Amino acid sequence: MTETDFRRTGSEAPAFPQDRTCPYQPPKAYTEWRGESPLTRVTLFDGRPAWLITGHAEGRALLADPRLSSDWGHPVFPVVVQRTEDRGGLAFPLIGVDDPLHARQRRMLIPSFGVKRMNAIRPSLQSLVDRLLDDMLAKGPVVDLVSAFALPVPSMAICELLGVPYGDHDFFEECSRDFVGAATSGEADAAFAKLYQYLHGLVAKKQAEPGDGLLDELIARQLEEGGLDHNEVVMIALVLLVAGHETTVNAIALGALTLMQHPEQIQVLLDDPAAVPGVVEELLRFTSVSDYMVRMAKEDIQVGGTTVKAGDAVLVSITLMNRDAQAYDDPDVFDARRNARHHVGFGHGIHQCLGQNLARAELEIALGTLFTRIPGLRLAVPLDEVSLKAGHDAQGPIELPVTW
Amino acid sequence: MTSRAAGTERRGAGHALRITVDRDRCIGSGQCVMTAPGVFTQDDEALVALLPGQEDGAGDSRVREVPLACPVQAIVITED
């Protein structure tokens, strides 16, 4: 179906995505879509109809199905938010390509995000978290937990891992924020161009003066040996830098907020440090920072008795999959002792989050240490005054005033 | 949730498990290591590997959950 086709026919299905009103609960309309069927019909901002997959089992099967494409470069790949139009024809590595290109790119990066490597950086993450909390405690309440803690933890961590100078963080944090959250595509394009230019220069500088980050390894192993060209290295750097900034910040902030609103469950963290990883998994399930994944069907696919046709837009609802009553008992209850196995907070299939073990290390150390040092941490404003990111963004608070 | 419990269950059932891993499919998510750290590890390339002597999965009672936890079906468990 072409763009004109669906504009003409119009779609009467409800709009997707929608904004949350409670920071950690799905919008009301979403909960009404949970029913007998594992999928429902929705309408994207440009009038295009799309399938929204709501069932946990069906969504997992689809995310692992090679008949669904992630090729952002396809002329009719679904657009959920008019983000950026002019990227000079640059493809987005990893997230915006299919196998075999995706596999080739991911293979180069897997060793840098392995379980052992991520465990090895835990001591440096711990000292980073301790330092930030020292500063926060010295400053005293009221503090914005996003800017004082939730943002600098992943920002410093990804900079160190990539070998990007944290000294430039004001610049690229602003670019990253404007790129994914800009109101107009012109603003997003401008932010993208600034970020691209910055990283282009950084890669060139690193070629002359190598450091010891992931980018330096990519340059030494792939760029110099011809496995990657300069643009690919810059675009990989851009995707990793943005991904490192726009996800974990929300997971830390939303995780802290969820715990503050369930104070009786903070005790689970405090009673037993070994419980922290399980609490983090439940927070990832419960909060679903990445609300949806965007795909396009390459062939006809049967989903629960319905035919998804080749070319159809398929939105996979991470939020509703993580709240599927067939997968989890009392799915809308935050239960810090729950075994939240098989949640899809990091997605599923070949595109499952490359940085998930970094994110887990960050979340476990950040949230475990935050509540150990400030067990009485609480929201400084009523919950409904917490400003939230839009429905099409990574979900989380824009600011989170806290006191103790 | 100890390896001893898994071993007992295995003997009681009268058959052993056999685990096969597909490094070509593996995306290094580490779900296997997280779910059954007594059986799985990651090699120097951060791809799936079995711990020495763990081909039968006896070292971790949660080993049967691993095929479903893996995002790319890189792990298959069969019962002899």
Would you write up a description of this structure?
- Chain A has a 5-stranded mixed β-sheet with strand order 1-2-8-5-3. A 3-stranded antiparallel β-sheet of chain A has the order 4-10-9.
- In chain A, helix 6 (122-139) runs parallel beside helix 17 (356-373).
- By secondary structure, chain A is of the alpha+beta class.
- The radius of gyration of chain A is 21 Å and the shape is globular.
- Chain A contains 17 helices and 10 strands.
- The longest helix of chain A has 24 residues, at 185-208.
- Chain A is 47% helix and 9% strand.
- Chain A has helices at 3-9, 28-32, 56-63, 101-109, 115-120, 122-139, 145-150, 152-162, 169-181, 185-208, 214-223, 230-246, 248-260, 263-271, 276-287, 318-321, 356-373, and strands spanning 39-43, 49-53, 68-69, 143-144, 292-297, 301-303, 306-308, 313-317, 378-379, 401-403.
- In chain A, a hairpin with a 5-residue loop joins strand 1 and strand 2.
- Chain A has a single domain (3-403), classed as Cytochrome p450 (Orthogonal Bundle), CATH 1.10.630.
- Chain B has 80 residues and is an alpha+beta fold.
- Chain B has a single domain (3-79), classed as Alpha-Beta Plaits (2-Layer Sandwich), CATH 3.30.70.
- Chain B has 3 helices and 4 strands, in the order H-E-H-E-E-H-E.
- In chain B, the strands form 2 sheets. Chain B has a two-stranded antiparallel ribbon with strand order 1-4.
- The radius of gyration of chain B is 12 Å and the shape is globular.
- Chain B starts with a helix and ends with a strand.
- The model of chain B is unreliable at 1-14 (pLDDT under 50).
- Classes of the chains: A alpha+beta (404), B alpha+beta (80).
- At the A-B interface, helix 5 of A face helix 2 of B.
- Chain A: This is Cytochrome P450.
- Chain A: InterPro entries: Cyt_P450 (IPR001128), Cyt_P450_B (IPR002397), Cyt_P450_CS (IPR017972), Cyt_P450_sf (IPR036396).
- Chain A: Residues 1-23 are annotated as: Disordered.
- Chain A: It holds the Pfam family p450.
